[in-house]
Write a structure and sequence with these properties.
12 helices
C-alpha cells in the first residue's frame, strides 16, 4: 500500500469516526428529551458517569497505574476539569430539556466554538481577526433569534426561555473546559478520559444528593435505564474515543469542523424522531450559527 493510499484510508477512517461522533452527540439531545419522566436530571448524570467510569477504568487501569506519578500532581486540575466540562455542562444540559425544545438545544450547542474564541481572547489575549469576529457576531445573532423564538419584542421585556439560558450557560462551561485543555498533563488519552470521568462522577454525587433532599429525585424506570445505557455507550464513551482517534488521524483543525454537524443532526432528530415543529426562526438561526 502506497503512502498516498495509506493517507487516503486514514482520512476516510477519520471522517467516518468523526461523523459517528457528531451523530452520537446530536443524539444526546434526543436522549435528554426522552429521559423526561423516566429519570430525574441529576440522578441521570450520576448514573451516566458511574457507567463511564466502570468502562474507562476497565480499559485504562494499567495505564493509570503507570502514569499515576504525573496524575497525582494534577489532581486539583483534573477535579476542576471533570466538574466543569462534564458534570456542570451535562447537569444544565439535561435540566434544560425540561424547559426548551431539542431543536433549540441542538442549535445553541453551535455556540461552543464562539465562546472558546471569546474566552481565549479574555484569558490569553489571543488575537481575534476581523473575519473571526464577524463569525462570532453571526453565531450570537443566530442564538439570540432562537432564544427569542423570532419575537424581537421579547428583547424589550427580557422574556427568554429559561431552558435556552441553561443551554447557553452550559456551553460557556464547556468552552471554559476546552480553553483550559492547553494545560492538560502529558498522559495517554484513555487515562485522561478515565480520570475526568471519575472527577465528573464524584462531582455529580453532591448534586444528586441536593436533588434528593429537595424531593425531586426520580429513580430510573425500565425505559430510563435503557436511556442511561445508551447515553453511557454512545455520547459519553464512543463519541469521546472516536473523536480522540479522529484527531490522531487528521489533526484537531480538520476534526473540529465536524462539530458543525451536531446542530444539524440534533435538529433532524428533533423533527423526525421527536416530532418537533421546525419553524422559520429555527432555519434562520441554524443558518446564521453554521455560517458564523
Amino acid at each position: 500500500m502506497t503512502a498516498t493510499t495509506t493517507s487516503r484510508v486514514a482520512t476516510l477512517t477519520a471522517y467516518g469516526l468523526l461523523s459517528i461522533t457528531a451523530l452520537c452527540r446530536g443524539a444526546n439531545t434526543m436522549f435528554a428529551k426522552l429521559a423526561i419522566g423516566e429519570v430525574s436530571p441529576l440522578n441521570l448524570i450520576m448514573w451516566r458517569w458511574l457507567g463511564v467510569v466502570l468502562i474507562a477504568w476497565a480499559l485504562a487501569w494499567r495505564d493509570i497505574r503507570h502514569e499515576w506519578p504525573t496524575l497525582r500532581t494534577h489532581l486539583g486540575y483534573l477535579a476542576a476539569m471533570g466538574a466543569l466540562g462534564f458534570t456542570a455542562f451535562n447537569a444544565l444540559f439535561y435540566a434544560a430539556a425540561h424547559s426548551t425544545t431539542a431543536l433549540n438545544m441542538g442549535i445553541v450547542q453551535g455556540t461552543i466554538p464562539v465562546f472558546v474564541i471569546l474566552g481565549m481572547f479574555i484569558v490569553y489575549k489571543t488575537e481575534v481577526p476581523v473575519r473571526q469576529a464577524l463569525g462570532v457576531a453571526l453565531t450570537l445573532l443566530g442564538v439570540a433569534i432562537v432564544a427569542l423564538e423570532g419575537r424581537f419584542e421579547s428583547l424589550v421585556s427580557l422574556s427568554i426561555n429559561v431552558g435556552d439560558l441553561m443551554m447557553i450557560t452550559a456551553c460557556v462551561f464547556y468552552a471554559g473546559y476546552t480553553i483550559r485543555l492547553r494545560e492538560k498533563p502529558q498522559v495517554s488519552a484513555l487515562t485522561w478520559f478515565a480520570m475526568l470521568a471519575t472527577a465528573a462522577f464524584l462531582a455529580s454525587i453532591p448534586l444528586a444528593a441536593v436533588e434528593w433532599s429537595l424531593g425531586s429525585t426520580q429513580w430510573p424506570t425500565g425505559r430510563g435505564w435503557v436511556l442511561i445505557a445508551l447515553i453511557v455507550i454512545f455520547p459519553s464513551f464512543l463519541a469521546q474515543v472516536f473523536f480522540i482517534r479522529g484527531v490522531d488521524l487528521i489533526g484537531p483543525g480538520r476534526s473540529g469542523i465536524f462539530v458543525n454537524l451536531v446542530p444539524i443532526i440534533a435538529s433532524c432528530l428533533a423533527v423526525v424522531v421527536l416530532g418537533e415543529q421546525f419553524q422559520w426562526f429555527h432555519a434562520v438561526s441554524l443558518a446564521l450559527v453554521l455560517t458564523g
